[in-house]
Amino acid sequence: MKTPSKLDQIHFKTRQNRWLWYFSIFCRLALAAGFIPAGLTKIMGERFASGLSVSHPMGQYLEALHHTGYYYTSIGIAQVLAAILLLIPRTVTLGALLYLPIILNICILSYTVRFDGSFVSAPLMLLANLYILFWNYDRIRFILPLKVSTEYTLVPKPDKYSNKFPFLFFTGAMASMGMIILFFIYGHEVMPRNSLSECKKQFVGTENEAVGSTFCECIHTHAGNLDECLTVYEKNKK
Fold it and tell me: Is residue 161 domain-resident?
């Protein structure tokens, strides 16, 4: 019998812990709660984040996406379907696999346009989705580019869970959350924010207040391209 790999062993040990099981359920519920309202909004034909000005880079994207017809609706259907599949125990793995490319796209988009609304939540949702996929690693291991033991099959629910609290895991989870929040605060020198007034507040009392105000007006008043507005800001800042 071939010895299970280190990853197999870690997965098996993870599946025996009650606290990590609770966390997997929490992640499933949180991910479903994040996609159902957003998906239903698209299915009903309403623009997502309708309160966001079309002058904002994300607002421009969402406005254009809203006018793509059934493509926009299909995104909503995919989001709701992924959420429902996550809530059903037998289809969790399928739901997580469907969820992954959608939330990865949202995460990259949020960082690209520096959108406050999902700058923190999107990467946290991505990490939660990856955790769900790891929790169901025994179901997807054969489609991964890894050398796997054929002796390691589906892991059944244990007769008795371990009650040992995984301090190291949750410390890492909190540290990851902290790093994401810190990157949101300090990762970019300037952010377009969600409104002209909020954008200008980040420059109040700084030596770049005037050029910062010009950057904000470039975004929110003149609906300028983010890259172009940033280029002007970089060129004129002190």
Answer: no
The pLDDT tens digits of the residues spanning 82-138 come to 999 999 999 999 999 999 999 999 999 999 999 998 999 999 999 999 999 999 998
Give the total number of structural domains in the chain: 2
Domain membership flag for residue 149: no
In a domain, 1, yes or no: no
Q: pLDDT at position 151, please?
A: 65
203 in the same domain as 178: no
- DSSP for 108-156, written as a single string: HHHHHHT-HHHHTHHHHHHHHHHHHHHHTHHHHGGGSSS---TT--PPP
pLDDT number for residue 1: 45
Q: Which residues of the chain have pLDDT under 50?
A: 1
CA angle 123, 129, 131 (to 5 degrees): 105
Half-sphere exposure (Cβ direction) of 76: Cα atoms closer than 13 Å = 21
**Structure tokens of 198?**
């909020």
- Whether residue 21 is found in the same domain as residue 101: yes
Question: Quick one: which of 120, 144, 145, 123 has its CA closest to 133?
Answer: 144
Residues 121 and 143: their CA atoms lie apart, in Å, by 28
Please indicate, yes or no, whether residues 126 and 216 belong to a single structural domain of this protein: no
